Amino acid sequence: MTEDVRSEARVRIAHAGDVPAIARIYVDTWRSAYAGLLPDRVLTGMSETRQQAYWGETLARGTDTMHVAEIAGAVAGFAAAGPARPLLPKSVEPACRGEVYTLYVLPEHQDRGLGRALLAASFGALARRNMLPVVVWVLADNPARFFYEHLGGRRVGERQSSLGGAHHLEAAYLWTDIPCSGSARWSI
Ligand SMILES: CC(C)(COP(=O)(O)OP(=O)(O)OC[C@H]1O[C@@H](n2cnc3c(N)ncnc32)[C@H](O)[C@@H]1OP(=O)(O)O)[C@@H](O)C(=O)NCCC(=O)NCCS
Predict the structure, then answer these.
(1) Is residue 1, in this structure, part of any structural domain at all?
(2) What's the domain count of the chain?
(3) Is the distance from CB of 51 to CB of 78 less than 8 angstroms?
(4) 110 belongs to a structural domain
(5) Cα(112) to centroid of ligand 1, in Å?
(6) Best mutation site among 99, 147, 148, 155 for ligand 1 pocket (most ligand atoms within 8 Å of CB)
(7) Does a structural domain hold residue 164?
(8) For position 26, which CATH number holds?
(9) Residue 35 is part of which domain span?
(10) Residue 118 domain-assigned?
């Protein structure tokens, strides 16, 4: 952690009023994290308005568990989790019930423990929904894979996918032993 933000940071369940911030974080972090990994036209073509519609519908549907991380009352990151998509090979898939679909922290607030706290909150919510173990899919070239490895994820599979006409590899990370979100290591 580069500075002590524990006193002013917290993670909570997302609500409808968070949708504009979630859409902005989604667009900002995609453009920053995926430059050079995904086609420029995909990143420049992103729209906060479309993202607001998507996340507003997702929240209203209620199948995803969504959390936001706040610093001093401003939303700085978010995560969405729910039932695992059936993307893993049959040898792994039966063991996998939950998935963290999305985990993004604004570039200026990264490396302060928010990503870990959001992941822990998502794990806790999936455990309460009886959706363990948990998988996360990440672009295989995304440095975020080291974050997941650092936090105990085990690489269990890969798949090819495409976006904007470009093909890329995604890697699956699995957690069978879910860390206790109440422990100091997993809190902010
Ligand atoms: C990946 C991401 C969510 C991590 O969130 P964060 O708030 O920056 O991470 P944290 O501060 O909670 O880091 C927790 C630990 O992981 C480590 N870590 C974080 N990012 C890392 C990385 N890229 N490589 C290696 N370790 C990393 C931190 O050093 C910290 O280690 P510690 O045990 O010494 O404290 C965030 O950087 C992000 O949003 N990235 C861009 C979007 C993205 O790629 N999201 C993932 C899509 S699948």
Answers:
(1) no
(2) 1
(3) no
(4) yes
(5) 9
(6) 147
(7) yes
(8) 3.40.630.30
(9) 6-186
(10) yes
Around ligand 1, the residues with Cβ closer than 6 Å are: 29, 33, 103-105, 110-116, 138, 142-144, 146-147, 150
Q: Examine residue 133 and say whether the peptide bond preceding it is cis (omega within 30 degrees of 0).
A: yes
Ligand 1 centre from 67 Cα, in Å?
17
Whole-prediction pTM value?
A: 0.94
Residue 181's pLDDT band, with cuts at 50, 70 and 90, is low
Smallest CA separation from ligand 1 atom 31, residue: 150
In sign, the C-alpha dihedral spanning 87, 18, 114, 37 is positive
- Digit-coded pLDDT (tens) for 42-76: 999 999 999 999 999 999 999 999 999 999 999 99
Query: Is the Cβ–Cβ distance between 153 and 170 less than 8 Å?
Result: no
126: nearest Cα among 54, 175, 69, 182: 175
Residue-wise pLDDT for 106-154, tens only, equals: 999 999 999 999 999 999 999 999 999 999 999 999 999 999 999 999 9
